[in-house]
Design a protein that fits this description.
The protein is mostly helical. Helix content is about 70%, strand content about 0%. It contains five helices and no strands. The longest helix has 22 residues, at about 60-80. The protein is rod-shaped, with a radius of gyration of 23 Å. Keywords: Membrane, Transmembrane, Transmembrane helix.
């Protein structure tokens, strides 16, 4: 394999890593999961006065569990359907050879 082919292969690997690293599902899922844990803990430690203000509903607990579920949904979605980096043809804007250009 020539040096040029080796360089192209290395750039493709770096592009795939960057695409997976900066996937918005990872950021949203991670933030919702972290905030969900924090709010759920606040719900477990709610005082009687807090519950009385919310008419007996532990809002922090339910909101935290909802946020945690949403965050885990995004992270599972990311795991099941990972990001596919664009091909060289897509980056250059060329049509693939086997399909006619319109």
């Amino acid at each position: 394999m020539s040096d040029h082919q080796h360089d192209v292969a290395a750039l493709e690997r770096e592009s795939a890593t960057a695409a997976r690293l900066f996937d918005v599902r990872r950021i949203i899922g991670g933030l919702f999961a972290v905030y969900g844990v924090i709010v759920t803990i606040a719900g477990f430690t709610a005082s009687d006065a807090d519950l009385k203000k919310a008419q007996g509903i532990n809002i922090n607990l339910w909101t935290g569990l909802g946020m945690l579920a949403l965050g885990l949904f995004f992270l599972v979605w990311l795991k099941l359907r990972p990001t596919v980096p664009p091909t060289a043809e897509e980056l250059t804007g060329e049509a693939p050879e086997d399909t006619p250009a319109s």
